[in-house]
Amino acid sequence: MCPGCLSTSDCVSSHLVAKSIYKRYLRAGELGPVKMANGKIWPTDHQLQAKLLCFRCEGILSRKGEDWLAERLCTWERSFPLFETLTKFAPEVSEDGFSLWSGAKNPEIDCDAIAHFAIGVFWKASVYAWTAGHIELGKYAEPIRQWLFDGGQFPTKVTVRVVVSLPENAQIILAPPYRVTRANAHWYCFYIPGMAFEMGVGNLIGDEEKLVCLMHNSLRPIIRTDELTGRIQELGVRTFRESEQTQSYERFKAKRNRLLGRSG
Q1: How does pLDDT run across 202-223, given as a tens digit for each residue?
Q2: Taking residues 237-258, what's their average pLDDT?
Q3: Secondary structure of residue 95 in the 3-state scheme
Q4: Among 86, 71, 66, which Cα is nearest to 164's?
Q5: Which ranges in the chain belong to alpha helices (H)?
Q6: What is the largest CA-CA distance in the chain?
Q7: CB within 8 Å of 142: residues ≥ 6 apart
Q8: % of the chain with per-residue pLDDT over 90
Q9: DSSP characters for 118-135?
Q10: pTM of the predicted model, to two decimals?
Q11: 147 phi and psi angles, rounded to 5 deg
């Protein structure tokens, strides 16, 4: 059964993180992001996928978010189309390592697509026993499903925060969803090149959390914060230092260094 539409339709191959992201780098002939999970590092051709959704539901996720965002991510060469578009407008707030832009005021930013992509990844992570990235959403999975596939209202007890990095600080990684320990709700996070997404679910989600939520705040905020950027950088450094670097990754690293003119 397809967990998206709850039909008995045959399921097709679904990627936990969008297939269009992998295709975007391969089509352009660029170096793809590095995937980090379960104490290992792989090049992007190691794709996390399973027969999960029917063709129709897979198409909904692609059309409503994945395809739009995939073309706008950061590359190893530090081209970051989404950040360039975002910063055409001055931030609403910029102080102490924190900046907030209004996606609602920028006609080139498709906030619904960004939200649909992010929530779609978190939801997929909860409905299949992935080898890396599985999370538990409990009773919140169903209202999220209805919003993703049936056009229902965005759940009141769900919040999503979108964070971008400065291009020069961006980590070109794919890190699947994982649990973040916080007191007031169940929080989860995942990373794609140049971006991080945090989702909170629970009865204690309140006005403070909704202030920086892409869906609940009418400004449609997209933020840059040194605190989270530093956390992503720390994750990247720690994972590279401690993880098992697969043979395929070693070959990828050598190719990356040749193309970028690096040594070692």
Answers
A1: 988 888 889 999 999 999 999 9
A2: 56
A3: strand
A4: 86
A5: 19-28, 55-61, 67-70, 81-86, 111-126, 141-150, 207-210, 226-242, 247-260
A6: 53
A7: none
A8: 59
A9: HHHHHHHHHSS--SS---
A10: 0.85
A11: -70, -40
